[in-house]
Amino acid sequence: MSLDATxxxxxxxxxxxxxxxxxxxxxxxxxxxxxxxxxxxxxxAKPLVMGRKTFASIGKPLPNRLNIVVTRDTRxxxxxxRVCHDLESALRLADQQATIEAxxxxxxxxxxxxYAQALPHASRIYxxxxxxxxxx
Length: 136
Known about the structure:
This protein is 29% helix and 22% strand. By secondary structure, it is α/β, with parallel strands linked by helices.
């Protein structure tokens, strides 16, 4: 299966500062309660695909969603998440789950390397533009 062959559309969700920064030291450099509510509403009951560092910044699986972590670390394991070692296998797993659960889309939620790999295959981007500049 190629990345363009998913049955369910691939979407990306992110918040970005004016200068393009999406995170600092594996954390969001801002606290925006409304954006967190938007994130929850948009990702609820949809498979989530994220990199290991993004997962580490969250610290636990997000509830009511299949959490898929992409990592090259073959020893990585965490209760409540599925682990894949490349984006293609993560999207394949997400596509299967989304098809079973009739989810409208697969959500890719970062970080930077995962976004870069997924961007050519995304049919939608949910982007919050944060009106600040941060070092990152």
